[in-house]
Design a protein that fits this description.
Layout (H helix, E strand, L loop, with lengths): L7 H21 L5 E7 L3 H16 L3 E7 L5 H12 L6 E4 L9 H7 L11 H8 L8 H12 L8 E5 L6 H10 L3 E5 L6 H5 L4 E4 L17 E4 L3 E2 L5 E2 L4 H7 L2 E2 L6 H23 L9
Parallel strand pairs: 1-2, 1-3, 4-5, 4-6, 6-7, 7-10
Antiparallel strand pairs: 8-9
Bound molecules: NADPH dihydro-nicotinamide-adenine-dinucleotide phosphate.
NADPH dihydro-nicotinamide-adenine-dinucleotide phosphate binds next to α10.
């Protein structure tokens, strides 16, 4: 049996339980945290992700709503709905499930979300704040990875961190967060020559590619902490990560499983960001004092 597992599912459950008190406090102040998730189209994986997000909000006592549009919807309709939600004081977080259909300008949609409601942390203002080392909303997946490292007592300072993948939603923000914690960071991607040369140097390896089991046991350093962000569906319907768990678990000091690793943490951090958004609003506009008779 593998004993060196970084159990994201258990940590996410702990966090979600701890959120309930913050949600109750905010609800009593008239600021029940509210999240709206917008889904365009019928992509099966996206439908599952959206359902999980909405269910997690409800379980924590938050307000949550799913808005679904057909795949051929006019982007102007989605923009108009975002504008409406930006002005809705019951809603603290707005999330547009990515990827969007091809006829959408993804950047324009993300830019339309009010920065203070951008709980995914993808708005250019929030990306800039993160790059400057003063994050407002940290993108949920890398945020979840940092929480897992912190919980396991892993201090990135002085360590070699290698990230495979350079997407805006995982690889790049992951690099910024590890850099901010003092790691020496290398980002690999599809043009990287000799990927194994880099991955074998990693004290902390984060795989965020989307290719089933592409990181084998011979590509990691003995004693490394291996974080598998990838979610891939195998022909038999089962899920697996970008890391070959069976071979890497022999060599790694700590390793995240798929499922049950980074995925549940991503959802927990989405809740954290939405609660944080509601707390910020509550601080800016405290509930009116009751008159004393
Ligand atoms: P993207 O497709 O946006 O990015 C993939 C990255 O992998 C790109 O930077 C690409 O390089 C790089 N890449 C592709 N092939 C190789 C290769 N052979 N060697 C090295 N690098 C390569 O994916 P995302 O970042 O959105 O997601 C990555 C994975 O994480 C997916 O499986 C996704 O489902 C999963 N995911 C999981 C989440 C969770 O909660 N657990 C949340 C978000 C994503 P290049 O830029 O050069 O094309």
């Amino acid at each position: 049996m593998t004993t060196n597992i970084l159990d994201g599912k258990a940590l996410a459950e702990q966090l979600r339980t701890s959120f309930k008190e913050r949600v109750s406090t905010l609800t009593a102040l008239g600021q029940r945290p509210g999240l709206v998730v917008i889904l365009v189209g019928e992509d099966a994986a996206s439908q599952v992700y959206v359902r999980n997000k909405v269910n997690a909000c409800e379980a924590a006592g938050m307000l949550s709503e799913k808005v679904v549009y057909p795949v051929d919807v006019d982007p102007a309709v989605v923009l108009a709905r975002i504008a409406q939600l930006n002005a809705d004081c019951r809603i603290h977080g707005i999330l547009v499930q990515l990827p969007l259909p091809r006829h959408f300008d993804e950047a324009a949609i993300l830019a339309a979300i009010a920065a203070e409601k951008d709980v995914d942390g993808f708005h250019a203002e929030n990306v800039g704040a993160l790059a400057q080392g003063q994050p407002r909303f940290i993108p949920c997946t890398p945020y979840g990875v940092m929480k897992m490292l912190e919980h396991a007592g892993i201090d990135p300072s002085g360590k070699e961190a290698v990230i495979v993948g350079r997407s805006n939603i995982v690889g790049k923000p992951m690099a910024l967060l590890l850099l901010a914690k003092g790691a020496t960071v290398t980002i690999c991607h599809s043009k990287t020559r000799d990927l194994g040369f880099h991955t074998r140097r990693a004290d902390i390896l984060v795989a965020a590619v989307g290719k089933a089991r592409m990181i084998g046991g011979d590509m990691i350093k003995p004693g490394a902490v291996v974080i598998d962000v990838g979610i891939n569906r195998l022909p038999d319907g089962k899920l697996c990560g970008d890391v070959d768990f069976a071979s890497c678990a022999q060599t790694a000091a700590l390793i995240t499983p798929v499922p049950g690793g980074v995925g549940p943490m991503t959802i927990a951090m989405l809740l954290a960001n939405t609660i944080e958004a509601a707390e910020r609003l509550a601080q800016r506009s405290p509930a009116p004092r009751r008159k004393v008779a």
